[in-house]
Amino acid sequence: MVNAKDDRKFSVLIAGGGSTYTPGIVLTLLNGLDKFPLRKLKFYDNDGERQKKIADATAILIKERAPEIEFEATTDPKEAFTDVDFVMAQIRVGKYAMRSLDEKIPLKHGVVGQETTGPGGIAYGLRSIPGVIELVDYMEKYSPNAWMLNYSNPAAIVAEATRRLRPNSKIINICDMPIDIMDRMAAIVGLKDRNDLVFRYYGLNHFGWWTEITDKQGNDLMPQLKEYVSKNGYWVGGDYDKGTEASWESTFKKAADVYKLDPTTLPNTYLKYYMYPSWVVKHSDPNYTRTDEVEAHRQKLVFGECKRIVDNGTAKDTDFKPDEHSTYIVDLCTAIAYNTHQRMLAIIPNEGAISNIDPTATVEVPCLFGSNGPERLSMGKAATYQKGMITEQNSVEKLAVDAWVEHSYTKLWQAFSLCKIVPDAGIAKDILDEMIVANKDFWPELK
Ligand SMILES: NC(=O)c1ccc[n+]([C@@H]2O[C@H](COP(=O)([O-])OP(=O)(O)OC[C@H]3O[C@@H](n4cnc5c(N)ncnc54)[C@H](O)[C@@H]3O)[C@@H](O)[C@H]2O)c1
Ligand SMILES: O=P(O)(O)OC[C@H]1O[C@H](O[C@H]2[C@H](O)[C@@H](O)[C@@H](O)O[C@@H]2CO)[C@H](O)[C@@H](O)[C@@H]1O
Ligand SMILES: [Mn+2]
């Protein structure tokens, strides 16, 4: 509950208002007004038509639940970014059409095709860098005191780019994958949710490991979790997983095999792509990838529900609800707004947090969140296995940013071929050459 003497109310902008994740965030904001009061909510997107479908439903939600909040949706950057305290960014440059190619082009060559991993993730990175930098520049121009919490992927490459190109900007890059996994861990050990856990975690984005997990009383939960994960991965099942899609079920279960590679830690689910790429390719359909599933499922559900709300003129019976993605970003804003020093993960410049990793690497570690942003916690030394993996993958991410900055074909080829999931430089070149053509409207011309 907000301190009675503190009567601040905040103005929030969702950049990427047309995102499938926007309704979840709106519901979380509306449910949490006692902890994070709002005076204004705005949407910004460069696709006004897509955004309008979500905005029209949101207008009804706000009218019914908190009519005192001013709401507007715009495609005009000045209108969007003026008088804002927090920007929640979740844009997808190139939209699902380009995500589909990120997945399908590598798969044609027998290589993992994934949104944020391998050649697909690098291709997406080169599209996202200018998109996110543009958002940061709008924020600094129109609301220089605002903070940006950025989900736009691939967060690792975006964070490396903003570290280098906008080192003093108030952007904090974040990810919901460890958050989702920690909610699962809490369920596995019979606790309410991730906020009941105290943890140590280190690595890169979509590339990290938990080294310690206790409850609030300090009881070690690692033995119980390891025992469970070695058999079931992070799959909880039952009511908890009602509605979880089959491909996510497979990913959560595969964590059992990933765990076996290093039984001293617990892994992020994304490591499956690096440790079992042949298995992933074998279980992929190059003609029907994750994008096709998202378009047929999440996108359809979200836009269908918005249409239903608008057609009925009411959102009283909506099944939109908060989830780990939305509660995390709102919790982060609340911690910054009220200087709570809550311990949460962020993707930030290493600067010693992992002592034997390049200080200029962009890593994911727990931080204390307060009004000056995140203060990184020291995670000590990476073990030999993790150090090797992190060093290689971080070099891939740095080379991708180098390639965008220098317009360098060679650096991008190096990034593709250094990536653990690409078997050789010849295959890397074949994929790269096809991706250059596919991304001609988004990438700089490479020399
Ligand atoms: N970091 C994480 O853990 C995490 C978790 C979930 C989603 N995401 C990311 O959130 C983003 C949204 O995902 P989604 O599946 O809802 O995508 P989506 O395509 O439904 O929504 C993205 C929106 O961004 C808009 N957009 C694209 N380029 C833009 C630009 N330059 N300026 C303004 N708007 C722009 C699109 O028009 C679209 O409405 C993606 O980047 C996704 O990878 C990240
Ligand atoms: O394939 P998608 O678009 O469904 O998901 C890609 C995103 O996956 C992670 O976020 C998950 C989250 O972990 C899961 O629990 C649930 O909340 O859905 C999210 C999105 O589906 C990952 O952290 C993101 O970076 C990916 O974009
Ligand atoms: Mn993520």
TrEMBL record:
Cross-referenced InterPro entries: GlycHydrolase_4_CS, Glyco_hydro_4, Glyco_hydro_4_C, Lactate_DH/Glyco_Ohase_4_C, NAD(P)-bd_dom_sf
Record flagged with keyword Nucleotidyltransferase: no
Transmembrane segments: 12-33
The Glycosyl hydrolase family 4 C-terminal domain, residue ranges: 201-418
Chain positions recorded as substrate binding sites: R99, N153, R290
Highest taxon in the source lineage: Bacteria
Site annotation Increases basicity of active site Tyr: residues: E115
Co-factor note (free text): Binds 1 NAD(+) per subunit.
A molecular function (GO) term: metal ion binding
Pfam families: Glyco_hydro_4, Glyco_hydro_4C
Catalytic site: D176, Y270
Keyword Metal-binding: yes
Entry's family note: Belongs to the glycosyl hydrolase 4 family.
Name of protein: 6-phospho-alpha-glucosidase
Species name: Companilactobacillus pabuli
